[in-house]
Amino acid sequence: MGYPRKLTRRFRAFDNFAISFTIINIISGIFSSFGFGMNAGGPPILIFGWIGVSIMVLFIGASMAEIASAYPTSGALYFSAGKLAKKHKGAWSWYTGWLNFVGQVGGTAATGFAAATFLQAFFAMQWDTYEVTIQKTVVITAVILVLQALANTYTVQLVAVLNRISVWWLLIGMIVIVTALTVMPSEHQSASFVTHFVNNTGFESAIYGGMLGLLVTSWTFTGFDGSFHMSEETVQATVNAPRGIMRAIGYSAITGLILMLALVYAIRDYAAEAKADAPPVQILIDALGIGTAKFLLLIVIGAMLFCGLANMTSNTRQIFAFSRDGAMPGSRWWHSVSSRTRTPVKAVWLAAACSLVLVIPGWWSQTAFTAIVSVNVVGLFLAYAVPIYLRLKLDDFEPGPWHLGRWGKPVGTVAVVWILLSNVLFMLPHASPITPATFNYAPIALAVVLIIATVWWFATARRRFQGPVSYGRPDEVAAMDLI
């Protein structure tokens, strides 16, 4: 790919799969967004919407996997965008990189914020005198980010081990939660409950309200580019990285559907639980009792912490690669690698600091979490769309060992169309009446990112950034390898 190797290849096929599976994290995604789905469509959208959107995400993942096989680098999306563009390579690479960076920072921040929120819910259940405040959520999030940064500071082997543990935590945790919700309640909803449509969004159009509910699955399926970003640390990356992407999406789709069914059919008092501060937690309490609910909540919190750790790992590799090509302020700092641990330590702490900056407005804003999630999803999915779109325009695309053959362009077309449609949904109002508390800040977040990137591009970047850097011929690069 034209780079001297600085990162140690310690990720095996399972480890590469584990990073994306952990970031997607069905427990974290479903529990943090289930309440929104209860009010925007209800059971039919939660269940059938999950199936439909999962299929669309598989199209996106397949297109990304094909590109990952051809360009297995830490730069991932922005690197491949620069290589696939016929002209204006620097601009395509620049915008993709910044969308990816902001999206990943948002993902790390949002997951930490969600974990802090559920931790406070657990504390309130455990101690009657505990008072939940948004300020405490911010402080707990900051502590979580520091701990995750410390874990990422040490060897990539430690991160790989933690991600292997996280896979089993997710799978075993899902089995425990589903079993408890299936066996313990004295009664369940009838089979026909799957047709129970609900529209509490405030909008008169049931179709619009139901379409908004599709965002539950979209919120969950973010971050599978993690396998792509870990390519330079994965053995046989041209095959294992694309397989990691596809396996993570496929297994998450199946296990997530099982968890979704268990939660839906365990609902007791729909109206009361839908209005609760944390609807899935209230479902656990009503169906299983507070003691069991607290135990299961610990599983959920653990899943969120693992998810945040994997998010930060992926975020760090993107910062490392983007800086290696001189696209960030202080690039020489952020792409340096520790001689002892062989990890980009400075990039780790930059990722943690940027995530904390996104969280700080939560000190005084109740809508902070929604804004952070919007930054995460809109940034990431637009970054996914760019290289796929450029691959569609390229007639002489040279695939790697893992490819779609003649199905490459049809699959890519479906992927791009779905990304554009779902992103429109993310930027439309999500609740009515529209007030400061219900306003969707996604369009503003996207506009701010694009304005800053555009001003910076025309001011200085276009003269010094021409896309991914090539350090020389393969033999010259090999001679520069540090390990």
Automatic annotation (TrEMBL):
Keywords: Membrane, Transmembrane, Transmembrane helix, Transport. Pfam families: AA_permease_2 (PF13520). It is found in: Membrane. InterPro entries: AA/rel_permease1, Amino_acid_permease_CS. Gene3D superfamilies: Amino acid/polyamine transporter I. It comes from the Bacteria. It is a multi-pass membrane protein. The chain crosses the membrane at residues 21-41, 47-71, 92-118, 138-160, 167-186, 206-224, 245-267, 287-310, 347-364, 370-390, 411-429, 441-459. Its main location: membrane. This is Amino acid permease. The lineage of its organism: Bacteria, Bacillati, Actinomycetota, Actinomycetes, Kitasatosporales.
